[in-house]
Amino acid sequence: MWTVCLCIAALVALSFVHWIHRWSNPRCNGNLPPGSMGLPLLGESLEFFASNSSSDIPPFVKERMKRYGPVFRTSLVGRPVIVSTNSDLNYYIFQQEGRLFQSWYPDTFTEIFGKQNVGSLHGFIYKYLKGMVLNLFGPESLRKMLTEVEQAANKSLDMWSRQETVELKDASAAMIFDLTAKKLISHDPEKSSENLRENFVAFIKGLISFPLNIPGTAYHKCLQGRKKAMTMLENMLEERRRRPNKVQRDFYDYVLEELQRKDTVLTEAVALDLMFVLLFASFETTSLAITFAIKMLAENPHVLKELTEEHDAILRKREDSELGLTWKEYKSMKFTFQVINETARLGNIVPGIFRKALKDIKYKEHTIPAGWAVMVCPPAVHLNPSTYKDPLQFNPWRWEESELKGASKNFMAFGGGMRFCVGTDFTKVQMAVFLHCLVTKYRWVLMKGGDIVRTPGLQFPNGLHIQISEKHKIRARGGRNHPSRQDDEEADHVYC
Ligand code: HEM
Ligand SMILES: *[C@@H]1O[C@H](CO)[C@@H](O)[C@H](O)[C@H]1NC(C)=O
Ligand SMILES: *[C@@H]1O[C@H](CO)[C@@H](O)[C@H](O)[C@H]1NC(C)=O
Ligand SMILES: *[C@@H]1O[C@H](CO)[C@@H](O)[C@H](O)[C@H]1NC(C)=O
């Protein structure tokens, strides 16, 4: 009897040791990149998600680059992962989309964004959806949208300037959400009894959290937020079905038209998931970018000065001062686009882009095993001192150098290859127009907050509180660092 027990115990111990050994030494038909798989199951997730307040390459990645080189292995959220900080390998990964690599996000993301979100759809249906999104946010639509974007920015700024202070992260998120929701589903927050955006806010708070779905956890609230938002979107679509518009006006009209076609590949579930992703992608990312840009402008007055000059010049050149921005004026904002590029480079709003290896892939002396996840790490490329001199400096002028311009390999804030962000142009319009309205008409002072934390996603834990006032109608009130002052041209540039 004893011997049997002993044998079983020994067997259990042996297979445990074997399992641990297998965990830290995964099988590979070739030479695995160096690295550590961390603890069993947990891997190195805790180190990866540890927060840090610097804008530099995340310490997790930086330490491992030093120890193992530019390509290393690890384990995150239960998956073996190859991390690539090498711009050539990143480029190769983007170019081989659908052949050697495929878009892949952790299971928790799929749970949260729906099983049929754009990120995890492949092949035919994906191309179809992409066409649909480009139809909405492509250059032709954006040209028509310009005035609307200007009016939204104008209206928000006017409102904020009447408040004592405004928290820019939430306020700009609200501005962008309302505009996107209007374009997509003609949602008018002033006329609707339910607050669609509130559900998205609850959703976002738990997005990067431990996936424990029990009442009280952030993850649970996140799923609840998604559920409520989805129900609202469903009801709105149903409502539209009952009372259709005569001409196609928004995305829902388009969806209903498509669903009625016999040969369509679109289903209601796919359309609703897509709607959710678009609403989410548009307001969270762009509002982070706007907030980061304003923080950078406040910290770099010489950049603000040049930006203001560019936009004042646009107004001076305009023949009819009653008219709003034209597409030609928008296209002429050279320095503004440099500021936007620099914001995207240093902001690193997307800290990792995930793929899955479809086959064993040999790259230089290493092999990436089939089935493994691959994480492209944009911050490591954007903060590489041999490409970007003094990488932690916010320096829009660096984009004047011709080497940077064509060098798509060294700029991947919006991804690359086939899966390049479809919202890029939309984001640029939003940011450029917002900056235009802001710097031509207003000045602002930092009041409180503005600290950043990266977990590794960019966050503003205490927001960015600013006080905005009209340039030519200064009220007698002061910011944190200075008393109220005269409204002269000098002051425009010295403060804020
Ligand atoms: C600062 C703003 C933004 C940043 C930094 C950003 C970044 C990115 C990145 C890095 C990707 C590639 C993901 C991958 O390859 O797996 C991506 C894809 C995507 N983005 Fe954005 N994005 C921004 C704004 C937007 C906006 C405003 C929209 C919506 C209108 C949007 C919609 C999408 C969609 C639908 C995809 C998936 C495209 C695909 O899988 O082919 N993004 N974005
Ligand atoms: C951020 O990381 C650096 C090392 O890269 C470390 O010295 C610093 O203490 C970290 N800061 C925080 C707030 O965790
Ligand atoms: C911007 O807003 C102001 C007042 O809020 C208004 O007088 C002006 O016409 C608006 N301009 C545009 C282009 O919408
Ligand atoms: C911004 O970056 C993109 C991608 O590298 C580049 O094509 C573009 O020319 C840059 N814009 C400016 C104004 O430098």
UniProtKB/TrEMBL annotation:
Residues 487-496 have a biased composition (Acidic residues). Its cofactor is heme. One of its GO terms (biological process) is sterol metabolic process. Its main location: membrane. GO terms for cellular component: membrane. It is found in: Membrane. This is Cytochrome P450.
